[in-house]
Structures are given as C-alpha cells and as structure tokens.
Fold:
Amino acid sequence: MENNKDKQPEDALILAYFKAEQLTAGELAAVEEWLQDESNNVQAMEIVQVWELSGLASPAYVDTGAGLSSVLSRAGLKSGGSQARKSDWLTHAIAASILIVMACCLWFYSRQRDAERIINAATVQPTLTHLPDSSAVILRKGSNIRYLNSAFTQSSHMRMVLLEGEAYFDVESDSLRPFVVRTPDTKIRVVGTKFTVKTTEQEGTHVYVTEGTVEVVQNRDKYIVKEGQQISVSPGINIRAEPLDVNKLYWHSQTFTFNNDSLSYVFTALERELNVVFRFSDPGIGGCKLNATFSRQSLDTILSVIAKTHHLDIKNRNGTFLVSGKGCH
Structure:
C-alpha cells in the first residue's frame, strides 16, 4: 500500500481545504486521501497553527457554518443529518476522522486572539524568558517569538513557536510533545536539546546545535544536525551540515574561542560580533595564528592579548582599529 506521507499536498492546498475554499475535484481527492492517515492529522493542525500565528488568520475570515457544511458534503454527508448514498462503514470512518480535524481547526479559527503570546527583545542586552513548559529562550535584540497558550498544554501534540530574528533555545525534554520552531522558510523539530536559530529575509535560516540533535525541514527535504554542527538554509546554496562555528554564538555565550585560527578569522569575528572595524598595515598579519579563549572579557583585553602574542601595535583611530607590525608569511 502506498504511503500517504509521500503524497502530501502543498500546505496552501491543505489550508484552503479547511477554510472551505473552492478546490478542484482532484485537489479535494488529494487532501482527503492524505487525511485518511491519522498521523497526518497532527501535521494538518500544525499548518493551521502556523497560519494563525502568522497574523493572517482572523475569525472574520472564516465562515464556520459554511466550512462545516462543506466538509460534511465532501465526506459524503448532508449538514441536515441525513446520510448520503455512501453507507459503507469505511467511508463514514474516514468522514468522522475529517470532521474531528475540522472541528479542531474551527476551534483555532474562532478563539480569541489574546490566546497568542508575543515576546519581544527590545533591549540592547539579550532577553531571557521561559516558556510555559519551562524551556528557556534567549532572544537577540530586535527578535521575537510567538506561540499559542494551547500549544503548551498537556493535551497538545507539539510545542510550537514562530521566530523572527535570532534566538537560543534550551528545550525541556518531552518525547510525547516535540518542540518545533518555525521560520518563514524552515521548520526545526526537536525533543529536548540546546540550539540557536537565526533567520533573516536576506540570508534565510541558520541553525547551530550545541547539544543533542535537531531535524531541519525545508520544503519536503529533511536534514539531521547533530551536536557541534550547523546548517544554513537559504536560496542558491548547497544545504549540508558543517562544523559549528561557536564564535557566531558570542551574542549569548559571551565567549570567543580560537583554536589555531588565523588573525584574519579572529578580527572578522570581532568585527561581526562587536561592531568594530580593523585595518592591517601588512596583509601578512592576517596569516598569524591565535590559540586563546576569551570569556566575558572586554575588547581592550582581547586586543592587548593579541598584540602581545604577535608583537603588534593596535590603535583606535576614530572608531577604526589600525593593526601594524610584522606579518606571518
């Protein structure tokens, strides 16, 4: 028997089905066949949650009566209670399954919007918050997460948040309720682990795993990212897991770690994370190597160690640091 999971309709088509929008006979058949697999019902619920959290949903957009009548009709039943010609028990079992999903989705549509929670990071320093399941989240400045209270109840099938910007997650383990982070182009699914997600319109989504394993889903493709790895999902690049660059996590770890790294890499990391600029008097300086770890230390301290290690002179000239000395050729 062919696996219905391999024939999943597009998310937009599934959502259109539950919104009682006009579909072709072929589209109706595809969605209803996919829903026959009970395991797909959870995924259908997730699609509805994402739609609601995205701000596109509103009770005013949904005619619940029409939606219910439409699905009853599609299942082979009349809304007035009389049975259609199909009396086969399997047909009615499928119809019951569809109605259960529809009832749940209509509940999502009609509930009050104050059930949605939005957490913003408006301060210069990263913002620490705890979700209802005790998972910890650190948000970078200008970032936010959204979630529904219902997603963190014991009766929910998954714990889901929508992310805009960048955040570090320390997820409480719960094998019965996976934790899902949604970005505009990617889904990150975990049970209990520590990882960072960065998403921007220009660069796509980046995932950095510091503990455990995560599953990254983009379109229909799935990628496993293990502890000590990172992955980038953006248009036009080859998607694959790579060794983790821990210095890209400085914004919340407050630690730089350099293991025989070139000064070109070191100064690039400092520029990116501390918003400073460096200029070399000799390009060969970038070839010098550094072994050091800096935890919660000032920029002045970091530059002093680098200067002493390689006998360099580093001076601040109107916000630009000039690095002079002999290069390592």
